[in-house]
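Progress report, Aim 2. The chain analyzed during this reporting quarter is listed below.
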Amino acid sequence: MPRTITTSALAHLIGSPDCPAIVDVRRKDVFQQAASRIPTAVWRSHLEPETWLGGFEPGRPFVVYCVHGHNVSQIAAAKMRALGAEVAVLEGGIEAYAACGGPLISDAPGVEKGLPSPSVWVTRERPKVDRVACPWLIRRFVDPSAVFHYVAPEWVRDIAEETGATPFDIDGVVYSHRGEMCSFDTMLDEFGLDTPALRRMARIVRGADTARPDLEPQAAGLLAILLGLSAMESDDIRQLDRAIPVFDALYVWLRYASDETHNWPARASLT
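Predicted structure tokens for the chain:
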């Protein structure tokens, strides 16, 4: 990995399975006063990487950022390299990233500021659409280490209260349906994620989840795929693991390939 990464290059990776581990190393008082961070970023001290570097997946590359990409992130990167990490500094820091229009996420319930430990979520068992789409969104934009529990519907609240997990997609909680909107829409609102690709994905998810295939042409296809995965896989966590690449592909299509067409028969090449 190069020693620096541009804001546009990082923005391209956000939301993809190839996104590096992103570490917010702004000084603690600056971070505590900030209302947003780059998606999936965790806060860690720039002076003490030896205390936290081992908590990440071995061999995974890093991107670190501070406010402007100056001494704070440079110190963190130098210390991390000395410990054997592959790390790049975000050019211009979070200020430049925000100025170029890169997505940011806001503080929201259920996710401890700075992610000192993985967030934990709980919902109803046997997921179909929303209860698979929301974990994809959390893993790709909020907390890549998030843990999900699927339990009997009558026990979701009790388990949430006893374990501290955040309930979602049940009545009467923060992350649930609001009017005609589904839980995926609610999470976009709560985390301040408002990109064209994610908003269109939300309409596709909502169409599949609420029997409204008229909302987007892809809604019926997504529903068919997810119902098929549910029928194939009796273990909810394995079902989620199988569904994640479906949403990865849908998101990339929405960002880069939604205008592409495919025709048959193929036109003969001209010689």
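The longest helix spans residues 236-257. The chain has a mean pLDDT of 96. These observations will guide the mutagenesis work planned for the next reporting period.
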